[in-house]
Amino acid sequence: MNSYRIPEIAKQYTEYDMIQIHTDLPDFPELRTRLLFAFLNGNSKLSTSSELYTLATSLVQLALDTHDMVTVSNDIKEKKAARSRQLKVLAGDYFSSRFYHLLAGAGQIDMIKQLSNAICEVNRLKMNTYMKMKQLKLSAEDYIHQTVEIKSQLFLSFSEFMSEVYDQAWPEILRSYAKCEVIFEEIFRMESGANFKGSWGFWHILQHGTKDERKQLQAEESDQAKVRTLQHKYHITSQLYQMLDSQTKMLQSSVQQLESDKLISELFHIGEPFLRFLAKQPKVLEEI
User: Fold this and answer.
1) Which pLDDT score is estimated for 74?
2) What are the b/e assignments for 98-135, b being 16+ CB within 10 Å?
3) Annotated domain spans of the chain
4) Which of 95, 101, 132, 170 has its CA 20 to 30 A from that of 223?
5) pTM to 2 decimals?
């Protein structure tokens, strides 16, 4: 069995002085990367390529996430901000090129095709979600679902290879972990008070709020104090905590159905941060 060391290997591609000095990168997709490695490494037919496949996939995900951080407008006059934007574009392109280089060098042309198709699907999902957001036709439930699908697509491209051993376990468990990840991120998004527009809380209030409340949320410059009042009124944070609690319990149940004790142990270890986080918040879980 190979030991998990993907983040360390990835540093040779991500820790360039030019990038670190002049711009910031998104977080490494640690949870989904560890999950993919655990499943690949537990399959005797795939274990020899588990490190290569996981590294390549993590670099593609990092490339997509980096490009997502690029501002829509190019009207940046301040030199430092303009350089940061340019380097995000270049860094994302560089991570994508490493994915091709790694797999091509190993003769894994079919895997290049699999991941390339997955990239197309990610971009299709992003465009569809963006259009629904722009037209204000997205529900809070749809927001979670679409975000989970976008986060999962690259990793779902391995479903066919795993089907003989894990049947439907891989896509189900992957999506369940991704949903925990999405909800977890939304909790911190609410607690930081940043970027409320477009969050789960935003779509929830837009769906259930009064006409005046919806109008207030859609204003170009929302009154932050009033937005916080709406968050409290609709119990946004506590609802997210309860969603995470419910999802982790469903996930635990799914993981326990697997036949490999070693894989079960690894998957519980991967999901442990969610459980520790929830254990510290008993009062919030009782609010609703």
Assistant:
1) 60
2) bbeebbeeeebeebbebbeebbeebeebbeebeebbee
3) 168-288
4) 132
5) 0.92
Tokens 């999902």 label which residue? 125
CA angle 245, 246, 248 (to 5 degrees): 65
Given a contact cutoff of 8 angstroms between Cβ atoms, the answer to whether 174 and 155 are in contact is yes
Residue type, 286: E
Structure-token match 């149940």, residue found: 253
Residue 46 confidence (pLDDT): 84
Distance, CA of 230 to CA of 239 (rounded, Å): 13
Residue with the two structure tokens 């290049």:
112
Q: Which two tokens stand for residue 264?
A: 């079960």
**Residues 6+ away with beta carbon under 8 Å from 128:** 146
Q: Nearest Cα to 255, choosing from 242, 244, 241, 271?
A: 271
Query: Which residue matches tokens 């970027």?
Result: 195
- Tell me what percent of the chain is helix, strand and coil, each rounded to the nearest 5: 75, 0, 25
